[in-house]
Amino acid sequence: MRLFVSVDIGDIAAEVDRIQAPFRELPGINPTDPEQAHITMKFLGEGDHDLDDLTVAIEAAVEGADTDAFEATFEGLGVFPSLDYISVIWLGVSQGSKRLTELHENLEFETTALGYDEERHDFTPHVTLGRMDHAAAKEEVQQLVRENDPEAGTVHVEELRLKKSTLTDEGPEYETVERFPL
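Request: output the structure for the sequence above.
Response:
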């Protein structure tokens, strides 16, 4: 089973779709489904997961973050790992970024204690808009990222979700396994 922990942002799917539009027509860009837009808080990977232990760890992470529900505002574009070598195009988070980072840090602590791999990169709260399969449109993507500062709106973050991901020919399909209220 392939699992991750997320903050879902379906309330602004139409805005995510609008922001993706200029990228969608470019060669080599594989856009994500705006209806499944989310922030990946912790990727747990493929394997035989002990859901009971995982549930306890996520609950402890939420409790340790000591945060109530909050607002997260989505705006601005970025890429990973850099504008010189683009693999992911993303929509950023302004308001709420600190709280998301605190939740992520607590998830890291609790899940690595269970034996899950530690993240290799610093956490940047974001929504993936698309992946770049090849560099045919690199200059166009660079220009769009540099010249646009879109706003997608604000979402009320009130829970984390443990999600199952199934890879299909049409793209990933996500299913909520459990919800963890803030």
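The CA atoms of residues 49 and 82 lie 33 Å apart.
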